[in-house]
Amino acid sequence: MRYLTLLWSDHSDSPRPGTPELDAQLAEYGAFAEAAGPAIVAGDALVPAPVTVRPGDTGPLVTAGPFAETAEVIGGFYVLEADSDEAVAALAAQIPAAKAKGGAIEVRRVVDWQAGPGTGAGRWMALIWGKETPADRPGTPEWDEAAAEHGRFAEAADGAVLGGTALEPSETAFTVRRRADGEALVAAGPFAETAEVIGGVYLLEAATSEEAAALAARIPVNPGGAIELAPIMTFD
């Protein structure tokens, strides 16, 4: 099975580029990648300065900050392959963000992860936030209608969609933290305690933030929902 793991942490005191602290953090992630090996299907770091995009009558409505009003933001993600929830929880506990300040790993089962070859600058992650409806449950007529709508969006995006996936309902989600003594703590449910949850993700390609926001505003969302949009970090 494949799982999306969202890396939550408090970025108020994140190490700055070019500092020994950041070099040490990157080394930790390198060690995790080496240990996890082929269990990592995909993964990227995000610039911790997201915006929230809502469709508007005259264009996208863009506000600074993440969708969920928490001190923590999503700073990256992995797509992991594992045989069971227990196995992926053990993997998630080894991700450095699990023991960071305010950190936790939200683990979500994916429906059908797909990703294209884009690897350079100009890539964005779009998180679909909203209240769950029957359209979020595979096998329902509402799900089929929503899937067709997302298919039309991807086709109209004309190659700007690099990948993405729908997520299984939030009742299958769990959150992993790691204490200072190394013990893993697993709690049922998503990380953010809100009425809205993340129902899916897209990886997008756009040359500017304005283009990315205009594209994100066209992603189908449930009533009252919105898109949290963050640039994917690039490294030399």
Describe the SSE topology.
Blueprint lengths: L1 E8 L10 H17 L3 E6 L5 E4 L6 E4 L8 E9 L3 H8 L11 E6 L4 E2 L7 E8 L10 H16 L4 E6 L7 E5 L5 E5 L8 E9 L3 H8 L9 E6 L5
Antiparallel strand pairs: 1-5, 1-6, 2-5, 3-4, 3-13, 6-10, 7-9, 8-12, 8-13, 9-12, 10-11
How does this structure look, described?
With 236 residues, the protein is α+β, with helices and mostly antiparallel strands. It has one domain: 2-Layer Sandwich (Alpha-Beta Plaits). 21% of the residues lie in helices and 33% in strands. It contains four helices and 13 strands. It has a seven-stranded antiparallel β-sheet, with helices on one face. Strand 10 (174-178) and strand 11 (184-188) form a beta hairpin. 37% of the residues are buried. The model has no long low-confidence stretch (mean pLDDT 92).
- The CATH homology group name: Dimeric alpha+beta barrel
- Low-pLDDT stretches: none
The major beta sheet can be summarized as: 7 strands, antiparallel
Number of domains: 1
In whole angstroms, the N-to-C terminal distance is: 32 Å
Summarize model confidence as the mean pLDDT: 92
Order of strands across the main sheet: 4-3-13-8-12-9-7
Order of helices and strands: EHEEEEHEEEHEEEEHE
CATH level-1 class? Alpha Beta
The total of beta strands comes to 13
- Shape assignment: globular
Helix content: 10-25%
- Strand proportion: 25-35%
Task: Report the total helices.
Answer: 4
Give the class from helix and strand content and strand pairing.
Answer: alpha+beta
Estimated radius of gyration: 17 Å
> What do we call the CATH topology?
Alpha-Beta Plaits
- CATH architecture call: 2-Layer Sandwich
